[in-house]
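PROTEIN SPECIFICATION:
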Amino acid sequence: MGAAFFYHMTRTPLGETLPVLLGKSLGAGWQVLVRAPSEDRAVWLDDFLWTYSADSFLPHGRDGTADAFHPILISPSASFTRDALVSVEGAEVTAPEVTASTRTMILFDGDNPQAVQTARDQWKALTQAGCSAQYWSQQDGPWQMKAEA
């Protein structure tokens, strides 16, 4: 049974946090599904991961393309389970997905009040459904777990 890890980004933006977590996930041998909130954002994430660093590579592709065999798959709507599920920008995550995955990571922008509220709503829905959850913050410096349910 998996757990949901909520990452409240206040010091590093999505463009810095996501590649680190994806690299750690691949290091653990996990297949990863990155859920974007829309097809436009899935395209943006795909492009970003090809160009974010000249000296690093994260093998990835988008659902429904020839690159969908990569260990990192980006989709706004894929409903199948991989070892890890990463939700960005408020993309929906369900309790069955959390329990079917080894790890679910929900990344949200701490400077965006709507993103913070969406994450709070997700925390409440997932924990009320019986999912384990951890809240990680970098507000005081390096990432620290601040709450667990």
Summary: The chain has one domain: 3-148. The mean pLDDT is 93. Helices lie at 14-27, 39-51, 95-100, 113-128.
